[in-house]
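PROTOCOL LOG
Step 1. Enter all chains and additional molecules of the complex.
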Amino acid sequence: MKPVNDVGIAGWGVYIPKYRIKCSEIEAMWGFQPGYCRNLNVYEKAVAGVDEDTITIGYEAAKNALRRAKITPSEVGAIYVGTESKPYAVKPSITVVGEALGITPETLGADLEFACRAASEAIEASIGLIASDMIKYSLVIGADTAQASPGDVLEFTASSGGAAYVLAKRGNNTVAYFEGSFSYITDTPDFWRRPRSPYPYHGEQFTGDPAYFHHIISAVKGLMEFLGLRVSDFDYAVFHQPNGRFPLKVASKLGFPKDKVLPGLITPYIGNTYNGSALIGLAAVLEQAKPGQRILLVPFGSGSGSDAYSIIVGDGIEERVDLAPKVKDFLENKEYISYSLYAKFRGLIEKFEM
Amino acid sequence: MRKVYVVGIGLTKIGRFFDKGLRELFAEAAIKALDDIGGEKVQALVVGNMMSSSLGEQNNLGAILADYAGLGGIPAFKVEAACGSGGVAVYTGYSLVASGLFDIVMVGGVEKQTEYPTRIVSKGLAQASDAEYELFYGISFTGLNALVMRKYMETYGISRDEMSVWPVLMHKNASKNPYAQLPFEVTIEQVSNSMLIADPIRLLDSSPIGDGAAALVLASEKYARKLSDTPVEIAGVGLATDHIYIAYRDDLLKLKATINASKVAYRMAKVEPSQIDVVEEHDAFTVLGYMNLEDLGFSERGKTPKEIAEGRFHPGDKPTVNPSGGLKARGHPVGATGVYQVAEVAMQLRGDYPGVKVNGEIGLAQSIGGLGTTVSVTILRR
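Step 2. Run joint prediction.
Step 3. Record the structure below.
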């Protein structure tokens, strides 16, 4: 897809909770063979503190994005959060974030759900709203405090964190723009969570070939054909990162060398932040990219769908980088916790009130 | 009893088929087998399958598969004997033709597992053990085999690396089998260091979860030559059972049902183990690969790992064991496995097996249900 007017990125920001649990701690807790999670190329994951949730994570990431965009929050005409861990089943998260940031009341907004891909859908919707001049700025947040059943393999990766992007018409304060996108969606039920179920189910190997790999490869091939681009035209490739292995595998299937993927591969150090996953990876790339470079961004959500974007980096990006904490800063600011503290923070154990 | 021949064969590749259900898989194999006999009609269908009920919530399988494969209204039924269902289906199909009830019978085997998570499949497979006295206490089928493997290693003083020669040989054979689920080679180091599943069983000691279907057409002597230029005779069949609850067994390192079933089959075929050219046996886990050869009379107790390390049972030796790659690497589509084995041995004898070839006259297939609870042995002759 390509809008009549190009739309771009004015600001970006991330937030990653400072708590980390080592995967070896989870292995030992549940009796996995030591080194099990090394096969997933994941070593530790970020854990939201007891007073953090998708709303606070989204707020922090959005604040950083607004700082880099250098705009007044009230100029934002739409605010979206893509998440699968809403603090309330019914009640929007974005109203809280929007109110706290001073964006409300004259704005569009909604919480969106499509597993890990909802924030990407918010980017697509925002491109339409901005390109058609309905709004000037859109704030898109991808944030999660992902759930995993204790002892399930998902527990090695399901983590907490988020990213936010301020989008605007190309040339209107933007430092990168979307050259085009291609979406690919089917009914492929590889991962789901029913109402009143605290943890998701997943279809094991079904999450790989027919879900992750098929959808990402289809979206990327569609984009390349649509824009007439080849692998060599891209300087970076950022894929959804459910673990540290899949993005490298899909890159190799598509012919992308490892060194184009590694700058945006953050999951090995923080786990899978779901809606934040690919978008934190993109932030890490923007923080080192040079004007004129081309980035492939490919979020994926179970259920299943994937969007491939070609992003061209523009002038002025370097000046925005230091206006807010970088991905690197969040990776370095960490405090290791035990499984028991992690269990308390994530609500896996409850104190009985006498 | 009348003589019975294998005259038609159809196999699917074994693997994870997200786009094929139970009936599509079966029809693929059945149509290939029918093509193999020039499209002649079959008079009855026997299907080996273990988990259509527990996983797929589907009973009445015979009728469904006969209908879907276009066999139209013929007598059809499912035979279930856990992982040995396929071997028992062959035994049943043999009986139908030998008895004179029918002249042309299709024996199929089919299993569809990969659309279910491992914990569900493991629970389904565990129903091969004693639900009241074993399963109830939480042991899995892999757990039961782990007890046997530990006992084997301790009794005969066999190290981890010495045990690992079986998967290495199986993967090497499977690497040439176009139907195999895991057609790649592995090293002793990879086997010994693979993920621990149920100590001492590691990932590469275990047969994989997979989907597949196999079909044979069996015919009486009168029809065998009409339907095939290279009919292969089923010269002997044996079927035996043992205590399901392993605590009732005298010796964990022998599968009495294999010993008893093979005795019957050898006697019926009038052959000795030394005359067998090719064997397809039921190596669901590494330790069973060794024990089966000992129970079938091919090697001495506790000496098989060393013999295999020295080249015994490899391609070119007599007998060649599991040229398909065995359950370990060809794969183990549970209720279909026993049918694959007989099909593979028959193809070896008629000379059109597409993988590791064995030039021989006599072959043997052994299929196990549970931990040696139901064992069938089929001897084929060119």
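Step 4. Note key features.
Chain A has a mean pLDDT of 96.
Chain A touches chain B at residues 33, 36, 201-206, 209-210 (CB under 8 Å).
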